[in-house]
Structure formats: C-alpha cells, structure tokens
C-alpha cells in the first residue's frame, strides 16, 4: 500500500511541532501511523555518513554544490520510505539577502508530496511566543516582518503546488485553540 508524503512547514515560533505531536496522537488512536522526519536532521545524517561533516553547525558552511547534492540524496532516501511520511521542514528561509526556497525543485521532484501544510497564526501571537520561549535563540524581528515571512511562505507553497500537483492546506494554530489546529492537521493526515 502506497503511503502519503506530507510536508509540514511554518515560520519559527508558530508552534508547528506542538501541532504535529498532538495530531499524531489523534490519528494513532484511529490506527493511522506516520514516520515523522525532520528534513534538516535527515540531510545532516546523510552528510555525516558521507564523512562530509562531523557536526550540524558545519552544514551551513558547505559549498552550495555539496549542499544541493546532500539535499537531493536526502530527498531520494525519503521518497523511498514506505508508508505515510510527514516531512518537517521550512517552506522558505529568511536570510539577510532575502528569502531562500526551503524546498528547491530538486527536492520536490524527488519527494513529490501529496500535500504541503502551512501552520500559521497571527503575527503578534508568534512574536509573543518567540519573546517568551527561553529554550530557543531566534533573530529579533517585529510582527510586520513575521507577516511578510508567512505571506512569502504562502506564495512559495503555491509555486511548489504548481510544480508537483500537490494541494496546500493552511492550519491555524491560534492561542488556546491547539485542539482545533491538531484536529485540522489530523484530518489532512488521515
């Protein structure tokens, strides 16, 4: 039985991991299983196995051609995983020089996702979450910048959809409404 390939994304601080964990509990109770993969971690494991890096911090210092090769190999390996797979990654990465596609064409063509899920919420809620989360070190930015990043993610998700033919689903993770967000994601995953 062929499984679903679902990519889940969201800007830092949106609560994506929390929504994913709750949704996976819901569907597990229904007998639906997913292998949950973080694309960056998976790519790092490929690089480590190839003796390209020893630690994750070295990943961003690699030559672009090496990074592209590692991305493609990671995507090829993910595409071969049987059953349902949930791939946690970034739709885009905000850099000082602008936005960078988190899912370049060579990754999408290998994975060929069925669905891309964007986890979103109000910009002010994300800003407050970032300010109160002492476990993470994040760049300082205002709600307008967060809104721009979420809008860019929507735009690039549409481009990803055109390239692969997959659907795009937006799941809202508003404060105090985690059950609703997890339920919406669970519906997509079933």
Features of the shown structure:
alpha/beta; 190 residues; 7 helices; two-stranded antiparallel sheet; single chain; five-stranded parallel sheet
Topology readout:
Blueprint: E1 5-9, H1 16-29, E2 35-38, H2 39-49, H3 64-79, E3 85-88, E4 92-95, E5 98-101, H4 105-111, E6 115-120, H5 123-132, H6 143-164, E7 167-172, H7 178-189
Parallel strand pairs: 1-3, 1-6, 2-3, 6-7
Antiparallel strand pairs: 4-5
Helix pairs in contact: 1-7, 2-3, 3-4, 5-6
Walk me through the structure:
The protein has 190 residues and is α/β, with parallel strands linked by helices. The chain contains seven helices and seven strands. The protein has helices at 16-29, 39-49, 64-79, 105-111, 123-132, 143-164, 178-189; strands spanning 5-9, 35-38, 85-88, 92-95, 98-101, 115-120, 167-172. It has a five-stranded parallel β-sheet, with helices on both faces. A two-stranded antiparallel sheet has the order 4-5. A hairpin with a 2-residue loop joins strand 4 and strand 5 (98-101). It is globular. The two termini are 14 Å apart.
Helix content: 40-55%
Mean of the pLDDT scores? 93
Query: Over all CA atoms, what is the radius of gyration?
Result: 16 Å
Percent strand equals 15-25%
* Distance between the amino and carboxyl termini: 14 Å
Spatial strand sequence of the major β-sheet:
2-3-1-6-7
The oligomerization state is single chain
Secondary structure: number of strands: 7
The largest pleated sheet is described as: 5 strands, parallel
Structural class: alpha/beta
Which residue ranges are poorly predicted, with pLDDT under 50 across at least 5 consecutive positions? none
Q: Can you tell me the overall shape?
A: globular
The count of helical stretches stands at: 7
Q: N-to-C SSE series?
A: EHEHHEEEHEHHEH
């Amino acid at each position: 039985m062929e499984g679903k390939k679902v990519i889940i994304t969201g800007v830092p601080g949106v609560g994506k991991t929390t929504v994913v964990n709750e949704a996976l509990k819901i569907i597990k109770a229904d007998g639906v299983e997913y292998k949950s993969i973080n694309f960056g971690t998976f790519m790092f494991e490929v690089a480590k196995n190839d003796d390209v890096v020893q630690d994750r911090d070295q990943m961003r210092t690699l030559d672009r051609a090496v990074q592209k090769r590692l991305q493609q190999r990671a995507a090829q390996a993910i595409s071969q995983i049987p059953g349902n797979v949930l791939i946690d990654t970034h739709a885009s990465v905000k850099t000082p020089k602008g936005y960078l596609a988190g899912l370049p064409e060579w990754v999408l063509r290998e994975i060929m996702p069925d669905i891309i899920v964007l986890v979103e919420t109000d910009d002010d809620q994300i800003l407050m979450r970032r300010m109160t989360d002492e476990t993470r070190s994040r760049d300082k930015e205002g709600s307008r910048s967060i809104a721009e990043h979420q809008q860019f993610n929507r735009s690039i998700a549409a481009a990803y959809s055109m390239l692969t033919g997959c659907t795009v689903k937006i799941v809202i993770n508003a404060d105090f409404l985690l059950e609703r967000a997890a339920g919406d994601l669970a519906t997509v995953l079933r």
